[in-house]
From TrEMBL:
<dbReference type="InterPro" id="IPR008538">
    <property type="entry name" value="Uma2"/>
</dbReference>
<dbReference type="InterPro" id="IPR011335">
    <property type="entry name" value="Restrct_endonuc-II-like"/>
</dbReference>
<protein>
    <recommendedName>
        <fullName>Putative restriction endonuclease domain-containing protein</fullName>
    </recommendedName>
</protein>
<dbReference type="InterPro" id="IPR012296">
    <property type="entry name" value="Nuclease_put_TT1808"/>
</dbReference>
<dbReference type="Pfam" id="PF05685">
    <property type="entry name" value="Uma2"/>
</dbReference>
<feature type="domain" description="Putative restriction endonuclease">
    <location>
        <begin position="12"/>
        <end position="172"/>
    </location>
</feature>
Length: 189
């Protein structure tokens, strides 16, 4: 039996490759992993949430980033592209790169059937190492469903589940509410 050789890349090689790439890839401790394409529902939900957050935080000291801004997670040596990130005050950039930040307060991921286990487990474990992160929200694209995790202490997170169209996800960030009717506006299951 022949062993499979897995090529590892340096951070510098990955960042150089990403600058030229037509599609995005994640970097997980030396491994470059191509990201899968999104669906119409995924795109609609991300757009709907971004619009709500952008409007709500327009005159406040928050910044909302969507899909193309990279996140560096130093403790896990991961570069990834969350669907939505909210940063309180000013962004802190990885090595002065204006395309990579390190200080999100809120991360929202829209679940895809192919990545939902990773988003709920592996990715969330990595996200929990980010000192500034206070909330993590997962939204389904195949049904009305959401999960919210709020940091309540050192290595302590409170879990809430949502599954009815008339519900709201109450974000700790500025006490904002995301209505499912807005999140799923124009989404067809």
């Amino acid at each position: 039996m022949q062993a499979t050789v897995i090529k590892t890349s340096s951070i510098e090689e990955y960042l150089k490759q990403e600058e030229k790439a037509e599609s995005k890839s994640e970097y997980i401790d030396g491994q470059i992993i191509p990201m899968t394409g999104g669906t119409i529902n995924h795109n609609q939900i991300v757009g709907n949430i971004y619009a709500e957050l952008h409007f709500a935080f327009k005159k406040l000291d928050y910044r909302v980033y969507v899909e193309n801004v990279r996140l560096w997670i130093p403790e896990k040596r991961i570069f990834t592209y969350p669907d939505i990130m909210v940063i309180k005050e000013e962004p802190i950039y990885y090595e002065n790169r204006k395309d990579t930040i390190v200080n999100p307060s809120l991360i929202i991921e829209v679940l895809s059937p192919s990545t939902q286990n990773y988003d709920k487990e592996g990715k969330f474990a990595a996200y929990r190492t980010i000192k500034t992160l206070q909330e993590y929200v997962l939204i389904s694209q195949t049904q009305i469903y959401g999960e919210k995790f709020v940091k309540i202490g050192n290595k302590q997170w409170l879990f809430q589940e949502y599954h009815q169209e008339d519900q709201q996800i109450e974000l700790e960030l500025n006490n904002m509410k995301l209505n499912f009717s807005d999140i799923y506006h124009k989404v067809e299951f």
